[in-house]
Specification:
There is one protein chain. This protein is α/β, with parallel strands linked by helices and 257 residues long. Helices cover 31% and strands 10% of the residues. It is built from six helices and six strands. Helix 4 (116-128) links the parallel strand 2 and strand 3. Helix 1 (34-41) packs across helix 2 (48-66) and helix 2 packs across helix 3. The radius of gyration is 19 Å and the shape is globular. The chain starts with 33 loop residues before the first helix and ends in a 53-residue tail after the last helix. Residues 1-28 have low confidence and may be disordered. It catalyses: FMN + ATP + H(+) = FAD + diphosphate. It is an enzyme of class 2 (transferase). Its EC number is 2.7.7.2.
Length: 257
């Protein structure tokens, strides 16, 4: 498994005039910057991943040309796809607004029976990547109704939706919610990314992701509807990490819905 990229910012404090007492106040996991992505954003970069990154970058550029930062949030479930989107957003905000530590608003619609590992990863992302997470314990539609009341400034939700997801074949990168739903612009920077490109991105840049993916899960929902992918099971009963899946059309085999 790739080593996840970490930078520790340690602060030394002399307590009660005892300079030998060290107190670690905080650490930050480093997020992507424009310089990390620059080679992929170059016009001469022609690899499939570079093309995918350029498309996502263009969607983010249009997003912040259209909406203010207060009008944008990221739908975050702790899954691999929205994790990619989070890091792309952070890198874009650093480059566009010259932020050192950009702050984004996240939306976590917490359904029934989430995995503890997912909850832990979401909490880590809040702390390590400066995400102000709005947590609503509700199904999607009811959760968006509540969001309208509690955070009326938000007009758009950036999502990790890909074409392989259910009901996504006809979507565009900018798609309004259906007329009988609370009205939000759904923004999908990685809509046309492949499963392989998602994992190539996470692994090349050594970005942290939910540990369930190292245990044989390839698509994560809730404990009641998610199982390890049988295509990753070895003869000894153990499972390979998700990025080893060869038959990418079986990505959601472990999901009941």
């Amino acid at each position: 498994m790739p080593t996840q990229k970490m930078t520790y910012l340690c602060f030394t404090i002399a307590y009660n005039c005892q300079p030998d007492l060290l107190i670690v106040l905080a650490f930050l996991i480093s997020s992507l910057s424009f310089s990390d992505l620059e080679c992929h954003l170059s016009s001469s970069a022609l690899s499939p991943l570079s093309s995918a990154i350029k498309c996502a970058w263009a969607v983010l550029h249009q997003t912040y040309d259209t909406y203010s930062e207060e009008e944008v949030c990221i739908g975050f479930t702790g899954g691999k796809d929205c994790t990619v989107v989070l890091h792309l957003m952070l890198a874009y905000l650093k480059q566009r607004f010259n932020y050192e530590f950009p702050k984004v608003t996240g939306l976590y619609l917490k359904g029934a029976d989430p995995f503890p590992e997912t909850e832990k990863f979401i909490d880590e992302c809040q702390k390590n990547f400066n995400v102000k997470m709005i947590v609503i314990d509700s199904c999607i539609k009811d959760g968006l109704l509540k969001l309208k009341k509690t955070h009326p400034l938000i007009k758009s939700i950036v999502m990790g939706t890909r074409r392989h997801d259910p009901y996504s074949l006809s979507l565009r990168s900018f798609s309004l919610t259906d007329s009988d739903w609370p009205q939000y612009m759904r923004i999908m920077p990685i809509l046309d990314w492949t499963y392989g490109e998602v994992w190539e991105f996470l692994n090349i840049f050594q970005l942290p992701y939910c540990t369930l993916y190292d245990e044989g899960y390839t698509s994560i929902g809730y404990t009641i509807n998610t199982h390890k992918n049988p295509y990753l099971q070895l003869s000894n009963g153990k499972y390979l990490p998700a990025y080893n899946l060869e038959n990418v059309t079986s990505e959601r085999v472990g999901r009941k819905n």
